[in-house]
């Protein structure tokens, strides 16, 4: 009979050997430059990755499993933060010498607009960019990981088919005609308190113009703003709200498959579906640049884009089979129509016009 300590040491040795073999088997992907081997080799001496994002564990799990299988020596730690907090935390920590993010991912598109070309992000040219649409790399150092729809969500048990809105104009009409059902029971991202909400509503209302503002003012006092899509969906499921508008698809799609998901329903708004570009960047000066490059390249690869789709995000690549994921960008475009896609990108107007926009938003929410 083996001594328990000896058996334990043997198990540790076997595990280490397995990890070493897997590490040695990591090869340069087909079509990549031959010197990419130096990036893989350089990552072995680094300290893993820290990713600040506005994505939940359910969104991350498939992609992280795939990445770890390919590069098992790279430990990835993800922090689920608010979109604005992703950046404010990193900016506070940068240069302090403390451990901080190696990769930033968020829907705080005003921050990505500010970073565009300012030198704070590494201008890494991923070998995968040729397989992606132009908006995947809109500015030096700024990438788009996914383009995710913002949808209408509702409590399917509390709203009849006739009460369920099909778009923002539909919601405004139904709520104005039925205060008893909708007053105080509508939610959305608060554009005055949330960078994600600011980018979403700035894009939508710029596209809809005076009509959009009039509809918002009509039901603004009935709306209670939130800063998290997950919180909105939970409160809709419990009946605290009956409907949410411009809710991030990545928060609702995985929730539909969880216990209680049958209480929720959703719709792509028929008068304009916001497609939120989810920004991604590698901060210049990161302690783990090789590992960060490997991660970005994997996230953009066919395998990586398929796995982010399984996690509820919307892949950008047109070679991802929609049968393997919930939605693709191209599939949503066919569903809602190209003319109904409102792209929430990294427009510098988000910076220049933010203050007057927020004041106008507050007035509309007060019914003015």
From TrEMBL:
Pfam families: SBP_bac_8. SUPFAM superfamilies: Periplasmic binding protein-like II. Keywords: Signal. Residues 1-23 form the signal peptide. GO terms for cellular component: outer membrane-bounded periplasmic space. It comes from the Bacteria. PANTHER family: PHOSPHOGLYCERATE TRANSPORT REGULATORY PROTEIN PGTC, THIAMINE-BINDING PERIPLASMIC PROTEIN-RELATED. This is ABC transporter substrate-binding protein. It comes from Inquilinus limosus.
């Amino acid at each position: 009979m083996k001594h328990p300590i000896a058996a334990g040491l043997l198990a540790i040795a076997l595990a280490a050997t397995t990890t070493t073999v897997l590490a040695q088997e990591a090869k340069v992907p087909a079509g990549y430059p031959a010197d990419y081997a130096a990036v893989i080799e350089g990552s072995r001496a680094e300290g893993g990755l820290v990713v600040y994002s506005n994505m939940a564990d359910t969104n991350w799990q498939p992609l992280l499993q795939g990445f770890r299988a390919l590069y098992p020596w790279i430990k990835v730690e993800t922090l689920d933060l608010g979109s604005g907090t992703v950046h404010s935390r990193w900016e506070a920590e940068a240069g302090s010498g403390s451990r901080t993010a190696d990769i930033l991912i968020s829907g705080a598109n005003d921050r990505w607009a500010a970073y565009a070309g300012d030198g704070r992000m590494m201008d890494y040219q991923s070998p995968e960019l040729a397989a992606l649409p132009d908006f995947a790399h809109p500015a030096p150092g700024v990438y788009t990981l996914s383009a995710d729809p913002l949808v209408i969500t509702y409590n399917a048990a509390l709203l009849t088919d006739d009460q369920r809105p099909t778009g923002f104009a539909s919601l405004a009409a139904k709520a104005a005609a039925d205060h008893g059902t909708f007053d105080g029971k509508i939610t959305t991202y608060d554009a005055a308190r949330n960078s994600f909400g600011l980018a979403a509503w700035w894009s939508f209302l710029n596209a809809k113009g005076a009509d959009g503002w009039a509809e918002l003012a009509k039901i603004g006092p009935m709306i209670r703003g939130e800063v998290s899509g997950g919180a909105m969906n939970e409160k809709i499921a419990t009946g605290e709200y009956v409907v949410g508008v411009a809710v991030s698809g990545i928060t609702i799609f995985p929730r539909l498959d969880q216990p209680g998901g049958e209480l929720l329903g959703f719709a792509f708004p028929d008068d304009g579906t916001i497609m939120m570009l989810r920004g991604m960047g590698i901060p210049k000066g990161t302690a783990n640049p090789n590992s960060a490059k490997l991660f970005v390249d994997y996230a953009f690869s066919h395998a990586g884009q398929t796995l982010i789709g399984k996690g509820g995000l919307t892949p950008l690549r047109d070679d991802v089979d929609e049968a393997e994921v919930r939605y693709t960008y191209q599939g949503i475009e066919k569903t809602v129509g190209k003319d109904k896609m409102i792209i929430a990108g990294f427009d510098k107007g988000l910076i220049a016009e933010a203050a007057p926009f927020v004041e106008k938003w507050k007035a509309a929410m007060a019914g003015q």
